[in-house]
Amino acid sequence: MATNENLPPNVIKQLAKELKNLDESPPEGIQVGVNDDDFSIIYADIEGPAGTPYENGVFRMKLLLSHDFPHSPPKGYFLTRIFHPNIASNGEICVNTLKKDWNPSLGLRHVLTVVRCLLIEPFPESALNEQAGKMLLENYEEYARHARIYTGIHAKPKPKFKTGAISESTTALNVDQSIGDQKSVAVGAVVPLQSPLAPCTTASKGGNSQDQPAAAGPTHETGMSGSVAAATPGTLKKDAGLTKVQAGKKKMDARKKSLKRL
């Protein structure tokens, strides 16, 4: 269960709302994930924009939110290695939105969109990777070649984040536990109905249950065989009675034929 001790409750509430929105309506080329134990770490997979040296790559990054967020900007890091002027060798991202241009009203959607735009239009003048910045200014083709090599080696598709997990991440375990308790009660209610007098519909429900596949067969079979066992004595008596009637009728017919011959 999420504890989120690093952030104030009001910030957690706002983040939960924003993360849910990002999950339901993600920005183009961006998929967001969250650390269930700590909302102060936001993950995102960014697809390399078409027409750039990063095309066909998937770059995983994270945003670290400090205790006084949103009054101070988050820190951004690429976890996937990338050859880019504004991304340092340790993955740190240099963009004005996360520094001097930060505004508390800016949301995570805006930050992630700006980071993806950075892959389209780098700023070599404020380079953290001096080699990439210099190469971009002096020989774009060589820069693009290096960037494509890094992309091909490191930016391979990642396992996708679990969809729908963001919006309920702080209560998912409680919900699961509640559902589990309800299932346990339901299963317990079915067991007493496994008797010869149980309706066939009850046995069918037990047989179709996805939560109890192992018990499905026996439940169904027990209900059905019990019903047959209960009905068998009566059926045998009826059969015996019919047999006696038919035998008596045959004897009467034989006597009538004998009398006619006389």
Write a brief structural summary.
The chain is of the alpha+beta class. Helices cover 50% and strands 10% of the residues. Helix 3 crosses helix 4 and helix 6 runs antiparallel to helix 7.
Summarize the structure in words.
This protein is of the alpha+beta class and 262 residues long. It has a domain at 9-155: Roll (Ubiquitin Conjugating Enzyme). It has helices at 9-24, 108-120, 130-138, 140-154, 172-190, 200-208, 213-261; strands spanning 30-35, 38-47, 58-64, 75-78. It has a four-stranded antiparallel sheet. A hairpin with a 2-residue loop joins strand 1 (30-35) and strand 2 (38-47). The radius of gyration is 36 Å and the shape is flat. It starts with 8 loop residues before the first helix and ends with a helix. The active site is at 94 (glycyl thioester intermediate). Residues 201-262 are annotated as: Disordered. Residues 247-262 have a biased composition (Basic residues). Its EC number is 2.3.2.23. Residues 10-156 form the UBC core domain.
